[in-house]
Design goal:
Length: 86
């Protein structure tokens, strides 16, 4: 199971549908807020998502984290990260 998900969302309705469709636990998605709350800086949204995810995995001692990124024109990207043991 994935411990945390950083879901880059452009619209709240998109996030809700992705969470439902993929069966994510909403309590594990964007635990510090998402792009609507924190912003999505042009050209570095992916870096913000990954750094947020890695820091939160470490803080919570989680093992697996998923970062997703919408790229535009219907494209998308996702990366699964595994935190090394302490």
């Amino acid at each position: 199971d994935v411990d945390l998900v950083e879901l880059n969302e452009a619209f709240a309705s998109q996030s809700l549908q992705v969470i439902r469709e993929l069966g994510f636990d909403p309590a594990r998605v964007n635990v510090n807020g998402g792009a609507i709350a924190l912003g999505h800086p042009l050209g570095m949204s992916g870096a913000r998502l990954v750094v947020t995810l890695l820091h939160e995995l470490r803080r919570r001692r989680g093992r697996y984290g998923l970062a997703t990124l919408c790229v535009g024109v219907g494209q998308g990207q996702a990366a699964l990260f595994t935190r090394a043991s302490d």
